[in-house]
Amino acid sequence: MKRKYAVVYQPIEDGWIMATVPDLPGAVTQGKTMAEARAMIKEAVELLLESYRANAEKDAPGNAVWETLTVEAPTT
Fold first, then answer.
1. How many helices (H) and strands (E) would you count in the chain?
2. Contact of 23 with 5, CB cutoff 8 Å
3. pLDDT (tens digit, 9 = 90+) per residue, 34-73?
4. Does residue 73 contact residue 39 with C-beta atoms inside 8 Å?
5. pTM for the whole structure
6. 5 touches 45 (CB < 8 A)
């Protein structure tokens, strides 16, 4: 399933670029270039979502019901 997330890039010290995803607390990384920052935030989001899902599966009781929810999110 593909999802879209807004990413905020901002220059920080020594010319580095910080990348954050406001909808996903913890999705923060940096790169020396925009290309590197883009690649790093993509990987960070993938790993974070994988971790969230693994923890939810581990912590859910055996009788938990899983379903898909679709919502409209604000766009920027």
1. 1, 3
2. yes
3. 999 999 999 999 999 999 999 999 999 999 999 988 888 7
4. no
5. 0.81
6. yes
What are the Cα distances from residue 22, in Å, to 31, 58, 60, 62? 18, 26, 26, 32
Chain Cα centroid distance, residue 54: 15
Q: What are phi and psi of 12, to 5 degrees?
A: -125, -170
Q: Is the pLDDT at 10 greater than 90, yes or no?
A: yes
Cα separation, 40 vs 66, whole angstroms: 30
Tokens 């969230």 map to which residue? 52
**28 has a pLDDT exceeding 70:** yes
User: Encoding tokens for residue 18?
Assistant: 């910080």
Residue pointed to by tokens 């990987």: 43
Which residues are paired to 10 by β-bridges? 18
